[in-house]
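Form 7-S
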Amino acid sequence: MSEPRRLVEILTNLGALTPQWTAAVSAIDRALFVPDTFRQGERVVDRAETPATWARYVHGDLALTTQVNDGDDTNGSGLQTPTSSTSMPSLMLDMLELLEVSEGHRVAEIGTGTGYNAAWLAHRLGDASVVTIETDPTLAERARTNLAAAGRRPTVVCGDGLAGIPQHAPFDRLICTCSVQTVPYAWIEQTPAGRIVTPWGNGFFSASFAVLDVADGVAHGRFTGRPAFMWARQQRPGRGFLSDHLDAPKASETTTGINPETLYGDLDQRFAVSVGLPGGIWPLLVEADDGSDESTLWLLTDDARSWASVDYVPGHETFCVEQGGPRRLWDEVEAAHQRWATAGSPSRDRFGLTVTADGQAVWLDEPRSPYAVAPSTWGTAPRAPSEA
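Output:
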């Protein structure tokens, strides 16, 4: 069975589909929002060539990539960077549950994409209560077409979502379907007494939802979940091929007691280190292909001027570190890791975020306890924010 009711069955069996969203998921056929060709992982699926596979994936709980390289097939870089998708439906439902929408709410959506999430919202709340904005003109127009095919007509705006949608504000809820490094204050201004849910982080780690409640011009909230979303184009970290980042000669060779695989895979460690870094760093874990279970964790900078590598060998307690370029990236990671350990190795759910007109700050346990992070390129230096 590869049809709309199959997706409802899957989500029900997963325990992801709540009564509040059952009608919307049942009524909106995801197939109307998926192009004839998409990517699922490394596989390209073409409706004309494999119609049964196309339908099975569309009506499954899978994220489907619908655009790469911002739609530019001629950039010549060789990279195939996903830049738009229809998200995993169970993850969409998780996010909507965090948003806590109710009948009568007006909702702003940042990042229309295919329009599928907007269709769910419009079905639940009514077309007039949903405004969605997409930065890519081609995607915005395609989403309008998709929504009309599904019988939904929320307001679709083409523009800079990081500026919000001021001409349609205020809103009771704001949901962002792309990852951001800095929460724009415009969103707080346009959701003056409501809730904001957005994927948040930086290049080192971005798998967190920030769930922010707004009052008196200030947003406070905590982190949860493990989302995987495309970046807002205006705040996208650097990426590239490993070979493009190794021009800087090796400057030092040391050892570390921090297990690089644990750091990379453990949510609490990687989150805490990410908020303690000066910014502009992204990791790449390369696993050995010889069955040894060895790996190398590479740290690379957005400007491609600095790098570090840490070699993991099973059973070892110390690991070889090499660094090159003007920044000592592993030294920065070790300092952030030590800061976390000194604080008692707190779990991610003890951290929170405050956004004011002056910027954003990460705190530990409560907003009056700023976490001792270094000034960052993706946010402001921490301060003791005033509570609403």
